[in-house]
Amino acid sequence: MSKQATNQDLFGEKIHATVNDVLKHIDGLEFDDIKSCWPQRMVELYEVISIVLEKQSLSESENHQLSAILVKAIGEYFGGQSFYLPRNQKMERFMRDIAIYKEFTGDNIAELAKKYKVTHQTVYVAIAKQRDLRQKKLPLE
């Protein structure tokens, strides 16, 4: 198969637009336009980011532009790499532990355990870890 034949799809020439090309003209593009330019995973990232940003009181134009900029940054940083992206469980636990630490008053272990649906021991461990991090001023891991 010739190089020219591999560069054509069923309906003619493939679209060759870089992320920078898309960002320069983002205000004039619809989501379907982006879908035709970007690889599937980048489109999926765009969709996830856009849905999250919808909850942030941004205009549709701001959401569209910021979503594309964030996908570009992720693509530039991770582009070409295979990596495992863990679920948010560890981050969610870490954020929960921060909340527990901030709400801890010295006598509300049972209340915190009930609120966060964890054991008393988990509350004690969360408070201890957060206290150590703050006292030692060490990196989070």
Mind explaining what this structure looks like?
The chain has 141 residues and is mainly α. 65% of the residues lie in helices and 3% in strands. Strand 1 (8-9) and strand 2 form a beta hairpin. Helix 4 packs across helix 5 (60-78) and helix 6 packs across helix 8 (120-136). The protein is elongated.
Structural class: mainly alpha
Which ranges are low-confidence, i.e. pLDDT below 50, for 5 or more consecutive residues? 1-12
- Arithmetic mean pLDDT: 75
Number of strands: 2
Please report the distance between the alpha carbons of the first and last residues. 52 Å
Q: What is the number of helices? A: 8
- Give the helices and strands as they follow along the chain: HEEHHHHHHH
Helix content: 55-70%
Q: Shape from CA axes?
A: elongated
Biggest sheet: strands side by side, in what order?
1-2
Largest sheet: 2 strands, antiparallel
Give the strand content.
Answer: under 5%
Rg of Cα set: 23 Å
Q: What are the main properties of this structure?
A:
8 helices; two-stranded antiparallel ribbon; mainly alpha; disordered N terminus; 2 strands; 141 residues
